[in-house]
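User: Could you check the structure of this?
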Amino acid sequence: MIDINVIGTQFWLWTVLDIVIKFEREYFEVKCTCGTKRVVRASSVIKGRSRSCGSKECIAEEQKIQDKLFTLPDVDPINIGDVFKKLTVVGFAEDTAQNNKQYVVQCTCGNKLTVSAYALKTGHKGSCGISHYALKIGQRFGALMVTAIDPDDPTNITTTCECGEVEQYKRRKLLKGTIKLCLKERVHKRKHPINIGDTFGKLTVIEEVFGYGKGHHRYYKCSCACGSECVKRFDGLVNLTATHCGCSKLVNNPEYRKKVTTKRRINNEARDLALFIKEQEIKKKNAPTIKQHISKPINSIFEFLVHTSK
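Assistant: Sure, the predicted structure tokens are below.
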């Protein structure tokens, strides 16, 4: 809730007159320096997204205030060697068009980047963003093992496959799990189709499924080591991104287990209902009609009832 003392405070060219609650949200009744009154969202006024009524004279006044703010002397300058969380200032960079001071900083992981003085002082930028997901030498992703990391760009990872192939990949692809085999192995497996009985992790291929899913992908019905059956896509099996039916998540996450079991129960009930409706339609279609009951002309109602009762 906004403090009542904000009434009378000036934000850029707006002066707060009153606090208004609309649609369960807080608004300010504000007055511009030119005399225009409006009701504006409180957060927009406080954060500076709404600064004036928008007339040409007021926009010119906004620009003057903005120029004064950017030309104010820096009372707390940043020097080389200053440390901000994981970043250390190592040099100066060219200022932006709005005279924002830029600095070259180095992260604890060794990566260098350019950051503004505002981001450093306010703490909005405390690392390069890569150190949180840094990989280690010897870490494995399927058949790939991390063997080297580029010191100039830690996002470039050199991997060695079990077959001996050395390739470079981006860090995000390895962490996402989209690549677990080298290009040579992926091409080899795509050229040679999956056979019945092939194993991929905990999955064993039972048969190929046609007319499943969207697009022109190939699907295979597999049995998991836990005893359940599932349908997986061809590229998921080949790239080792699909190695189980989801039983690993079911064991480690009770909420996920409850969600999956509920979804399976609903799907089974819907399938049973569809089969029941289909059976009823077939019975109705094959049911004998009155014309089939009558094999000879009937001259009276009594004879018609006798024929239909048979």
